[in-house]
Structure formats: structure tokens, C-alpha cells
């Protein structure tokens, strides 16, 4: 599974599901270094995940990608 190689593993779960701008920015910065970021994003889109940072995107950003 791609999650085994993800950069987010050691971070606290609340970082990925916060709406605080500082935590969102930190989560996105970690995602930017992740070797499986694209797979994570595709998983979130395919699974219609409506919460959290996945593949370096917020739920609103994923919605825009799908509707583009």
C-alpha cells in the first residue's frame, strides 16, 4: 500500500484534519516532500473523501480538481 511510504506517518492525525491555516500549511508542506503524494491525492478523489489534507490538497481544492 502506498501509505507505507507516505511522509505523513509520524505526524499527529490532528494536523491532517485541522482547519487552522497554520496546520493546513504545515500539512501541505509535508505533502510536498512525499514520494506518494500523487497516489494519495488520487485515493482521496476516488474515495470521495470530504475531510482532511490528502495529496497536498484540501477538500475544496479536491472538489475543484474533480469539477474542472
Give a brief description.
With 68 residues, the protein is an all-alpha fold.
Report on this model:
The model has no long low-confidence stretch (mean pLDDT 93). The protein has helices at residues 13-16, 21-32, 37-46, 59-67. The chain is mainly α. The protein has one domain (2-67). The protein is built from 4 helices and no strands.
Topology diagram in text:
Blueprint: H1 13-16, H2 21-32, H3 37-46, H4 59-67
Unreliable runs, pLDDT <50, ≥5 residues?
Answer: none
Number of domains: 1
Overall average pLDDT: 93
The end-to-end distance, rounded to whole angstroms, is 28 Å
Number of distinct helices: 4
In percent, how helical is the residue content?
40-55%
Radius of gyration, CA atoms, in whole angstroms: 11 Å
Q: What class, by secondary structure content?
A: mainly alpha
User: What is the approximate shape?
Assistant: globular
User: What does the main sheet amount to?
Assistant: none
Helices and strands, in order, run as HHHH
Share in β-strands: under 5%
Count of extended strands: 0
Task: Using brief descriptors, characterize the structure shown.
single chain; 68 residues; mainly alpha; 51% helix; 0% strand
